[in-house]
Amino acid sequence: MTGLEIGRRETAGGTAPMAPLTSPPTADEDTRDAAAFLEQLAEHVRDGQENSALRLIYHSLLQFRRAGRYGLCDRLLHEVNVSALSPVLLIGFLTMTAPIKDRLNHRAACYQAAHDAIREARGPEAARKALVGLE
Amino acid sequence: MNLDRVVLADSSLDMVTVAICRTRHGSTHTGMVYRDFDGRLLLFHQAWHHETRNELLDEARIDLGGPFLCVSPDIDRDRARNLAALCEMIAATGEPIAYALRDDPEALFDEHTGRLTLPTGKGLSCSTFVLALFRSARLPLVDTTDWPLDRPGDRAFQELVVSILERTGASPDHVAAVRVEIGCARIRPEEVAGAALLSVLPVRHPSAEAAGQVLVERLEEGKP
């Protein structure tokens, strides 16, 4: 499965992009798509494929946003293993969710966890510079 | 101002730089140079009305024709990689953006579609295109508050742009809307690239103008 396939829904004619949905996604669909996304992300990270991981974050989160799947975005922020991700990937999550942050209950906690992780690795000034504007 | 950040447009470029060049027509031009996920260097720029181009840097340089420099902004390296990823994502929409003179300080690439939203503007110039990219990455490069109006040469340039828009087939409605903007603050391409020389962002007018002047001199000399 590619990043672009994540979150596609099966239709009579094959697969189709998620957006626009004709009905709101169910919690089960969010659970399924979050698990698929995070599994693929973990696989890229495990394989040292950081570019592929970053591409997955950008392409998939754009799709989720286009489809209005804020619940799914919020779930990803809640469930992502911050300590396993490099700063560039954490910044990717925060960049792609910044425009919809008012709709995401778990983003502030994710931001704080990312800030703490980068500060721990690189110091407070580097953490500030890496995350400026992404609060 | 750190002039070590001015570099030639070659294969050793960082993930993201702000380009400044003089075109074969004699005007200055700016755009964003970034590395895509495959490592290629591309120039993403507002070339003209409905000509928003994302092209290989080497080819773009030949096409533009004049001396070409890049400025590496003083941003975190991982943040720069994300700015490059954002450029690639926005470029993938293939949206042809209209050309206009006036800066819309709220111009952003939309949260849902990656396409441009202009709450009060009619389009983007090469300069305001770069500003909108930085703004969309939550890294505002320039603060245009109190930007001076009608500096020497600005009005003549704006009138020239409108006449070329008219000659080259822009719709009469669009030409009329852009004509109304003549006299607005003009953020010059070298001022956008010049802002990237400074460490404290966003940069305001006097500093950006001074930095832009330095870049114009470097362009004339044809070296960083």
Give an account of the 3D structure.
- The complex is a heterodimer of chains A (135) and B (224).
- Chain A is mainly alpha-helical and 135 residues long.
- In chain A, 61% of the residues lie in helices and 4% in strands.
- Chain A contains six helices and two strands, in the order E-E-H-H-H-H-H-H.
- Chain A has helices spanning 27-46, 50-66, 70-79, 87-97, 107-122, 124-131, and strands at 9-11, 14-16.
- A two-stranded antiparallel sheet of chain A has the order 1-2.
- In chain A, helix 2 runs parallel beside helix 4 (87-97).
- The radius of gyration of chain A is 15 Å and the shape is globular.
- In chain B, strand 3 and strand 4 form a beta hairpin.
- Chain B is an alpha+beta fold.
- Chain B is 36% helix and 18% strand.
- The mean pLDDT of chain B is 92.
- In chain B, helix 4 (154-167) packs antiparallel against helix 5 (172-179) and helix 6 crosses helix 7.
- In chain B, the strands form two sheets. Chain B has a six-stranded antiparallel sheet, with helices on both faces. Chain B has a two-stranded antiparallel sheet with strand order 7-8.
- Chain B is built from seven helices and eight strands.
- The A-B interface holds A 51-52, 54-55, 58-59, 62, 65-66, 68, 86-88, 91-92, 95, 98-100, 126, 129-130, 132-134 and B 37, 75-76, 78-79, 81-82, 85-86, 88-89, 108, 111-114, 137-140.
Q: How do the strands line up in the largest sheet of chain A?
A: 1-2
Encode the helix/strand succession of chain A as letters. EEHHHHHH
Mean of pLDDT of chain A: 84
Largest interface summary: A-B, 25 and 20 residues
Element order, helices and strands of chain B? Answer: EEEEEHEHEEHHHHH
Structural class of chain A: mainly alpha
- Separation of the first and last Cα atoms of chain B: 14 Å
Biggest β-sheet of chain A: count, sense, barrel?
Answer: 2 strands, antiparallel
Low-confidence region ranges of chain A: 1-20
The major sheet of chain B is characterized as: 6 strands, antiparallel
Q: Which structural class do the helices and strands of chain B define? A: alpha+beta
Q: What percentage of amino acids of chain A are in beta strands?
A: under 5%
Distance between the termini of chain A: 32 Å
